[in-house]
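so my prof wants the structure for this chain in the tokens format not the other one, which i didnt know existed until like an hour ago. anyway here's the sequence
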Amino acid sequence: MESFSLILAIVVVTALAFDFTNGFHDTANAMATTISTGAMKPKLAVAMSATLNLVGAFLSVEVANTISKGLVDESGIRPEVIFAALVGAILWNLLTWLVGLPSSSSHALMGGLIGAAVASAGFGAVHGGVLVTKVLLPAVAAPVVAGVASLVATRFSYGIGGKAQGEATRKGYRAGQVASAGLVSLAHGTNDAQKTMGVITLALIAGGAIAPGSNPPVWVILSAGLAIALGTYIGGWRIIRTMGTGLTDLEPRQGFAAQTSAATAILASSHLGFSLSTTHVVSGAVMGSGLGRKGGVVRWSTATRMTLAWVLTLPAAALVGAGAEAVTELGDWGTAVVAVFLIAVSAWIYKLSRREVIDHTNVVADPTEEPSGVVTTAIAAVTPPPAGAITEDLTATIPAPAQTADPATPAASTAPPAAAV
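here's what i got, hopefully its the right format
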């Protein structure tokens, strides 16, 4: 193994920073429904999720190999390309976290990597077959499959449970929800932590530190697992609020069905090496559980905003990654400019987030308090005053009709002559 260069060290640190943002960005995937239904206290929930994320990081390296060996041509990639890709992924993660949208950290990473690779070596540097079969197709299929599975599971749970709504029933489903949330956290570690492992491994190969085709070293697995676990413990409370109460109102048995369906899909994809978005899976499962309960409601305005973020994630991160790569090609000072830009924008986003602090004390919002859209806001701005106010205004501005001199004069006599008309 050759000694680390400065740029390689920068890439590794930046990759771990992305892994940290991935952790707090995706905490909601495992714990949002558990917190919203009251099955676990918020701080305890994120602590359990962080621990299981770390454990899950050691269970498999299939997804890491998809990133490091399959998505792009590793022979033509420089460490600066990996750095530029991570810049695009981190900034998209922070921006969507600021507005509380559960977008895909996985697709942000892959979008940044694709954009930077194309800017550096052309479209031939991206393996189109791997992109379609292991990234794009799972992105479309995952929320649909998880949603249908969760819908069926929810209806089945209500069917076999009948109308049982006692405290014992709720406690039983809450216990099951804690277990299923742990399974999702474990699955998240086996899938998302591996993406950072794959990126670091790709950077080590590009920098000549390890041989091409190598699996992630143990220190890479450990550091990636710790970074995502720490980010998970910090808690992405903004996204937890959106996922837990912004999409639908969940009862414990719905949360149990959603998390079990999501964990099954994620673990299966990790085994097959699919770089699946856990955000897509869990969001689809939550919506499916909302539709599965009779009288359940899905807030489609929130779902539409989420879908728009999903569609924009790959191209937006790719554009930022390509732009960052173009600047790094100017030399060491170009890389320094990109690093300063990343730090400055990250600090600015954090400062904006302090205007409305959301943490474990207020993460469970009133589900009726959904943000108003542009049209709703515009209509509210021009809402007419109450009818009583209009009557008072008219009374004040329109003078009363003059009375006739003779009160006994019939009303018809006060009409104007026909000629006047």
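also thought this was worth mentioning. Residues 367-395, 404-421 have pLDDT under 50 and may be disordered.
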